[in-house]
Specification:
Elements: H1 2-5, H2 10-17, E1 27-31, E2 37-40, E3 43-45, H3 57-67, H4 72-76, E4 83-85, E5 91-101, E6 104-117, E7 134-135, E8 138-139, E9 142-146, H5 152-165, E10 174-178, E11 196-200, H6 204-214, E12 219-222, H7 228-238, E13 243-249, H8 253-257, H9 260-267, E14 273-280, E15 283-289
Parallel strand pairs: 9-13, 9-14, 10-11, 10-12, 12-13
Antiparallel strand pairs: 1-2, 1-6, 2-3, 4-5, 5-6, 7-8, 14-15
């Protein structure tokens, strides 16, 4: 956390330092004209010392400048889906007045909100789930599901590291198509284990094919299936005999089945296991299913 906070401007580091020790902040929320707020256990709140400090657009731009190593445009030019990833896997969501051209978002004329999602290591979070992801000792292709912000990426990162290190399973080579740098950017890469190869800042569809051709992975991991080309790449990879680990937004297996993008994947039986993450009374709950019954 301390290494990550060094990439933030001084006013934000000082604000975070005012929090009581031991707090596990998941997100920081910055909105023009309002005080800083934090998200912890799925709940958003404003720490009392922050209440009199109203944020300006200049404050928000300073955050982007720091993330872009001195240039807001370095960050804004990366925009494709409303967020960018800064050093160390820090995800920054952006809202404001968009600048459009030919139906595409180019940048922002004005920035009004930022959401900083802080990556967290949760060592061992996948340990109790792993036995349920095996059939006759072999890892099944698995899709991790949850609404935004409940820890799909954290769970995937821990699962990759466990498989790569051979903890509770025969060690396997893992290829990671890390399009946004959220799984293995910077020091995060070492947490993914000794048999993991990471391809960063390359579109997932292209990255999966490059890993298959060049690195001969036994397991292929991708974060957030969001586009038809991602689905096609996963279908092709499944035909090459590799085990797949992936994440998707969804509240349940049944909800996912209603979405056309995922229906073919489910009908083809590419994924044999599904881990659904939910939040109950501020605690995450993990449920494993094979699509028919809870395991």
């Amino acid at each position: 956390m301390e290494d990550l906070l060094r990439t933030l401007p001084r006013f934000l580091r000082e604000a975070v330092a005012q929090l009581p020790k031991g707090r596990r902040i998941e997100e920081l929320r910055l909105r023009e004209g309002f005080p800083l707020s934090a998200v912890e256990g799925g709940e958003e709140y404003t720490h009392p010392p922050w209440r009199d400090r109203l944020l300006t657009e200049e404050d928000l731009r300073r955050v982007l400048e720091t993330a872009g190593q001195g240039s807001v445009h370095t960050v804004l030019d990366q925009l494709r889906s409303g967020y960018v990833t800064a050093a160390g896997g820090l995800r920054i969501g952006i809202c404001g007045e968009g600048a459009m051209k030919d139906g595409s978002l180019l940048s922002f004329r004005r920035i009004t909100s930022l959401a900083l999602r802080l990556p967290h290591a949760m060592p061992g979070v996948s340990a109790p789930l792993l036995p349920k992801l095996l059939e006759e000792g072999r890892l099944c292709s698995t899709l991790l599901l949850s609404p935004p912000g409940l820890g799909k990426t954290t769970l995937l990162r821990d699962l990759i590291g466990r498989v790569s290190s051979g903890e509770g399973i025969q060690p396997l080579r893992v290829g990671v198509a890390d399009e946004r740098g959220e799984l293995g950017a910077g020091p995060l890469r070492r947490s993914l284990g000794p048999r993991t190869d990471v391809l960063e800042n390359c579109p997932k569809a292209m990255g999966t094919m490059m890993l298959l051709r060049g690195m001969a992975p036994q397991v292929l991991a991708v974060d957030e299936i969001t586009a038809p080309e991602d689905v096609r790449a996963i279908q092709e990879a499944a035909g090459c005999g590799v085990t797949l680990l992936a994440t998707a937004h969804g509240g349940s297996f049944q909800e996912l089945r209603l979405r056309p993008l995922y229906r073919d994947l489910l009908d083809q039986g590419i994924f044999r296991r599904f881990v659904c993450i939910s939040l109950e009374e501020g605690r995450r709950r993990y449920q494993v299913t094979d699509g028919r019954e809870t395991l």
